[in-house]
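Subject: design request, 290 residues
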């Protein structure tokens, strides 16, 4: 299985992050030194992906621009002798091939994926959601790609979440396999606690095969009146064509302010130059610190 493309839906409004996202796409909000979307793209590149397909809208073109050359800026950095920054800016511009398709109506995640059909119709592909930031070794889309290649099946990434949080996610029921992955038997999008089949929640990482497009084309709107990817995946589960892999490492929900801020601090604490000063300032701010 040769997986090269990551579909990254970016047409959503980011209402959880307003007013910060009134005119700046939520994917462009910075976490430490980089916009959120760059972390997602780099995770894909680390897993061997070479192309990203942004499912986008007319207000989000700066996401594509971020992964393009900016000659004015490059000239300015060259003239100012800022060689390191120039190299970094060029690295970002050249890191990935960018394809953009317009999602003309916001009809749900399933619809966003279907919008990429003409680009991905003959190949398996990854789907990566910008709200879920995954860090650490052996985590993220690379793990799902390995599982898809080993089994020839579609794969969803899951994590265990506390019971009271299941209603924020798609939730799976499955049979654990000897290698620790799950054969998915059913999925429910945003279930009430009492209806959740488990506490294994789908996080925004998927590897899908072109067969998903046929299912999505016939998919009716589900929870929230949206065409849900989770509902379409049930069609695969019914044919024993879907597995789930539990992902480890750190995960941050970038649309949640506490998580977003924690992610910023997490990265700053890993930066040698900033670490000590940041800890000192945080201590000063915390009322109960010594
Ligand atoms: C989407 C999916 C959901 C999944 C979640 C992960 O929901 O529909 O199944 O659990 O992403 O972040 P959203 O958060 O876009 O409402």
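Subject: RE: design request

Done. Sequence follows.
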């Amino acid at each position: 299985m040769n997986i090269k493309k990551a579909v990254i839906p970016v047409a959503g409004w980011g209402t959880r992050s307003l007013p910060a996202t009134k005119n700046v796409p939520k994917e462009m909000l910075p976490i430490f030194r980089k916009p959120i979307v760059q972390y997602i793209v780099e995770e894909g590149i680390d897993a061997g992906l070479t192309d990203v397909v942004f499912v986008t809208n007319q207000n989000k073109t700066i996401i594509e621009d971020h992964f393009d050359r900016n000659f004015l800026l490059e000239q300015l950095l060259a003239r100012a002798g800022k060689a390191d920054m120039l190299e970094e800016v060029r690295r970002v511009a050249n890191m990935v091939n960018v394809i953009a398709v317009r999602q003309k109506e916001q009809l749900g995640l399933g619809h966003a994926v279907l919008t990429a059909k003409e680009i991905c119709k003959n190949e398996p592909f990854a789907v990566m959601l910008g709200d879920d930031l995954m860090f650490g070794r052996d985590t993220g889309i690379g793990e799902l790609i390995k599982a898809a290649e080993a089994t020839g099946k579609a794969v969803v990434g899951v994590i265990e979440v506390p019971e009271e949080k299941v209603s924020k996610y798609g939730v799976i029921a499955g049979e654990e396999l000897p290698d620790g992955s799950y054969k998915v038997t059913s999925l429910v999008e945003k279930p009430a606690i009492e209806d959740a089949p488990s506490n294994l929640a789908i996080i925004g990482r998927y590897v899908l095969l072109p067969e998903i497009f046929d299912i999505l084309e016939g998919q009716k709107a589900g929870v929230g009146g949206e065409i849900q990817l989770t509902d379409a995946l049930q069609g695969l589960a019914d044919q024993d064509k879907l597995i789930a892999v539990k992902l480890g490492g750190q995960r941050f929900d970038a649309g949640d302010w506490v998580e977003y801020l924690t992610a910023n601090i997490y990265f700053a604490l890993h930066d040698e130059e900033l670490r000590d000063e940041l800890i000192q300032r945080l201590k000063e701010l915390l009322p109960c610190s010594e």
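The chain has one domain: 5-255.
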